[in-house]
Amino acid sequence: MAAQEATEFVAFSNARMFNYVVSKEDVCQKLVERILGIEVDRIEFEAEEHSIQPGLQGHGVRLDVYARGGGKSFDVEMQAQTEFYIGCRLRYYQSVIDYDLLRKGMEYGDLPFSYIIFLCVNDPLGSGLPVYTVAPQCEEMPECHLEMRCKWLVLNGSAWAQEEDEGLRALLKYIESGIVTEGDELVKQIDRLVLGSKQRREGEGRDDIRKYRRGKC
After folding, report:
1. What share of the chain is helix, strand, coil (3-state, %, to 5)?
2. Does residue 178 sit in helix, strand or coil?
């Protein structure tokens, strides 16, 4: 009905919807490039919900989107619910990703640069920043470069208005509210995939469904 402005559908922040959209290699590459501010020659998509089991007794993980490109690895996770132990989760994810990357017979120097990116609807750290970038450093001499080849980013959709970068601000705004910023081609592409997907409320839990008001400014 024309008078009914609000429509319920599965959001980009829904786990299955996120995996469906970002499994498109061109979307994954554009998303990674926008978040990290780097160019990636080509993304090679490893798997949707890539599973790593570090030994029979180890705690396995299932990564939302795992890709490689330009000699780097990228794990991109969508976090719709607040994760109170996100620091511990980042620590463990890095360890199992390294386990997966460094095979028998390889040297430590063969480890590629690894990025772990969490796209959060809410602020898991509670400090109001739109982006938290974490990289290991020497406490006594921060300028001492350890070359650990890893970086973690936690994006906070609820603080999108505080982000200075226009493209990243549009992405965070969409993650938090579902609103497409006019003129942003990547967000428009993501939104077309979300709207065009056959996934709807059927079979999804109510907590994974969010109401969007199209045309809201």
Report:
1. 35, 25, 40
2. coil
Q: What is the pTM of this model?
A: 0.83
Closest residue by Cα to residue 52 from 115, 108, 98, 2: 98
Cα distances (angstroms) measured from residue 84 to each of 12, 88, 124: 22, 9, 6
Q: Is the dihedral of CA 77, 69, 101, 114 positive or negative?
A: negative
Question: What b/e sequence results for 184-205 when a residue is b if at least 16 CB atoms lie within 10 Å of its CB, and e otherwise?
Answer: bebbebbbebbeebeeeeeebe
DSSP 125: S
Closest by Cα among 55, 42, 53 to 97: 53
In this predicted model, what pLDDT tens digit does every residue of 10-68 receive, in sequence order?
899 998 899 999 989 999 999 999 999 999 888 887 666 677 888 767 787 888 889 98
What is the secondary structure of 92-117 as a DSSP string?
A: HHHHHHHHHHS-TT--GGGPPEEEEE
For 82, residues 6+ apart whose C-beta sits below 8 A from its C-beta are 120, 122, 124
Tokens 């965070």 -> residue: 172
* Cα–Cα dist 120/125, whole Å: 10
